[in-house]
User: What shape does this take?
Amino acid sequence: MRAAVLRERGRFEIERAYPEPRLGAGDLKLRITLSGICGSDLHEFVAGPLLAPMPSVLGHEFCGEIVEVGTEVRGFETGDKAIGVIYPSCGRCEYCQHGDFTLCDMRAMVAQERNGSFAEYVAAPARQMFLVPRETPPEEAALIEPSSVACHAIRRSRLMLGERVVVIGAGPIGLLITALARRAGAHRVAVIEPAEVRRQLALQMGADAAFDPAGEVEGPINEMTDARGADVVFECAGVGPAFEQAQRLVRKQGRLVIVAVYENRRLELDANRVLCNELDIIASFWANDIDFRNAVALVASRKLDVRPLISRRFKLDEIQRAFELLAADRGQFGKLLVECS
Assistant: This one.
């Protein structure tokens, strides 16, 4: 099969005879239709290896068609459309038993045994896969995985009706969080984003206001929050200045939710501000089975309309170009999709 292998930082190689994944008894084999480029994939391309080994086949935001079903699998059939998590969890630990398979200690250890979705085929544990209505367009289904990440961040934030929200960074995850915060009943939602294209997308996705961090930000947000600060700040930018700004914008006893992956892992934490203002700092890394199921329902029904986020599609052979475009100016794009088969 064909697969895009990240050989080294900044360089993909298309292998046309990459080994097809082996199907385990509890697995599904899927033909990948489309795979989205995640911010974490871009981090690996620009500054890796960070969370993934190298060389490796990246990609995890996908829509696929089931072409083979393991002998122990029930509830899935060939021809079904499915999304989910490729890399297997152990299925036995405390986290797996609660549906938090992305937190399984064993998952990272076996990541090298499975190729990601920038390939024609993947094999994935059926217990981590979720059916998508067949009528859902594949380009929308490919955004269910990032939508599940946004669902998880909203759930982790404990967002309540009437609260005031700030989202820092209007990449695809920040934009999806913006839309879901509005849907969850936030009273006001402000977005901070340097790129004009993404600020306009933020307004389209439900933000009340979108600010350029190079201009005046804290004054208008202070006014928007009645001088209290935001109840919840989602940090989706993944850069030090954004993390520092998030600490200033959140109100006393508010919640700062870290959603981004940081290329520079050393951040400035104002410990006394956190202590004296009794701030909650919450990490939201991925998603669990509840979030995936919620995301499937929201995207398939278009109660979460992901179509405005889709910017361009590329062939698998063009993946190097797609990543170079994002690395050069990611602010000009929403979500880029790769056609894998």
